[in-house]
Every structure is written in structure tokens, then in C-alpha cells.
Design goal:
single chain; alpha+beta; Glutaredoxin; 4-stranded mixed sheet; 4 helices; 4 strands
């Protein structure tokens, strides 16, 4: 299964999320404990972020956006960070 995370340059919330990510796991395309992978799409401008979100049917959203394999859409930074942590994509920080 593959989740998708949409980020953009110059986005403070996106930077917070990036800081949570276990980049070794994510960038090396390794699945988490549930065999789920995370693809990161990072736009360099507002226009490219808009194009990217439109392509995935998320035209009413703004980065950051997390789209699960099951179609669940997360667009609140706290919810995204909780999801990243809960699915083993974080650097080991826990909400507990």
C-alpha cells in the first residue's frame, strides 16, 4: 500500500512535517511495519503545488496534504504528524 504526502517549498507546516519524517525509511522506499510506503511530492512553487494537487483531485486543498491508500485526506498539520507517527514514518517521536 502507498500513501502520498504533498508538500511545498516555503510552507512552514510542511517544514514541521519534514522534521518528523524518518528520511531513511521514506527516501529509500522502504515499507513500514505494515508494508505501507510513503511517497513524498514536493513542489517548488505555489503554481506547481496547485498543479500537483489538481492532478490528484485535491483542487480544494492547500499543502500540506496527506492522502492515504484508502482515500482518506488529511490536511491539518497536527493530524498529518499524528498519522506519520502512528504509521512508523517518524524519527521515533511518540504521541504517548
Amino acid at each position: 500500500m502507498t500513501d502520498r504526502l504533498f508538500l511545498a517549498a516555503g510552507c512552514p507546516d510542511c517544514a514541521m512535517i519534514k522534521g518528523e519524517l524518518n528520511l531513511e525509511l521514506v527516501l529509500e522506499d522502504k515499507p513500514n511495519q505494515d508494508k505501507r510506503k510513503l511517497l513524498i511530492f514536493s513542489a517548488g512553487s505555489d503554481d506547481s503545488a496547485r498543479d500537483m494537487l489538481n492532478h490528484y483531485g485535491l483542487s480544494d486543498k492547500f499543502t500540506p496534504v496527506y492522502l492515504t491508500e484508502e482515500g482518506k485526506i488529511l490536511d491539518d498539520v497536527v493530524d498529518i504528524i499524528r498519522h506519520v507517527r502512528g504509521n512508523g514514518f517518524s524519527r521515533g517521536v511518540s504521541d504517548d
